[in-house]
Target: Cytosine deaminase
Amino acid sequence: MADQSINRREFLGKTIGLAGVSVFAPSVSSGAKPKNPIRPESAPVVLKNVLLETGFIRDEIEVVGTKTRLFTLKLENGVITEILPQAATSTGTDAKGLLMLPAMKDMHIHLDKTYYGGPWKARESKYKTVKELIEHEKKVIPELLPYSTERAEKLIELLQSKGTNFARSHVNIEPTSQLNSLTNLYKALDHKKGSFETELVAFPQHGVFYSGSQELMKEAAQMDIDFIGGVDPYSLDGNIEKTMDFTIQLALDYGKGLDIHLHESGESGLLTLQYLVKKVLENPQLKGKSYLSHCFVLGALDAKTLQATCEALAEAEIGITTTVPIGYNVMPIPTLMNHGIKVMAGTDCVTDHWQPFGTGSMLDKAKTMAELYRYNHEFGLSRALGIGTKGLLPLDKEGNQVWPKVGDEASFTLVDASCSAETVARLRPVEQLYHRGILVFERTDLKC
Model:
């Protein structure tokens, strides 16, 4: 098949200031470039007095603390090129003993439709079901579209201020907004290119057949997106197989991944999950590229059914993206992880017509996970950080230092904390965010 992808416009450098923060978007030279390019060559950066975790402190029963030491790091061309023991005579930018942690990854968000950056508005409680909210959204979207590029940029700046340098964003593809939500988001991402990276999901929010989005989804599949999305094929479209077959075939035809919103927690939710497993096993090129978002049905299964379901998801290499929800059946996240299933998290709606509670912080999600599963001890808190970093942690389970290493991408946060466990438990603020070796956010208000 000939390449029919439509590339985003080239980045125009700009610097945007927010109250109490500085967010930098450096310029990238013009010319044909792929989406989210690695940064161009830049002058080496030397960071001294960087605090790194080096191991666990144990008593006769458990991990009771985390070992740390100061280091000097050299960054060049977007990667870490040297990690040296700290010396009193070392030169470079002083990190002042701040703790270095991996940059956060928001793996489920809707950058294209948000109230953030505009006037305050809470959700209207009279819209209760998904279909009622969809009908309401058909009225809201035309009001949001004129501001969606600007607000997406502001939302990205919020994420950066929370230490996030990467997001997987679902983008509405439906008759109300046509492809305008996607093209408006392209503009925002072009403005942020070089300081923030994304994966995009073509998302038929109003249902594939319920809203008549088939042709629009086919158009979007030929554009600069990474995943074909879906939502509740039974409750919206009334036919699991018909909707899933359309969605899966679209992903196969255009070489995309799959990311399906599945809110249904009853029999239809389990049947949808099982059908996806079946189709992925029939099409192994989709293994490792298929995800179920939310997937609340997992929290409603008895132990025997959950065991069999986890084994099936693991065999098909289907991942789960979760918001670590409160107020639903508690999701069995530890069980999923114990089966080797890739579990990632996102902030979903920061504030829009669906809900107003998002902070944009993946550390917030890590803290919620720790509270839900009683990870209130040093080891558990250190593991909870991984839900916000796409699994990347400074120490492995045995306490061996596995990050950072020479050759790693130089994307990280600096926080005023003694260790990752304290960062999660106390929600320590992000002081700086580096993206591929370049400082893209710095907190300038008073430390709390």
Observations:
- The radius of gyration is 22 Å.
- Residues 105-357 form a domain with the TIM Barrel fold (CATH 3.20.20.140).
- Confidence is low (pLDDT under 50) at residues 1-21, 24-40.
- The first strand starts at residue 14 and ends at 18.
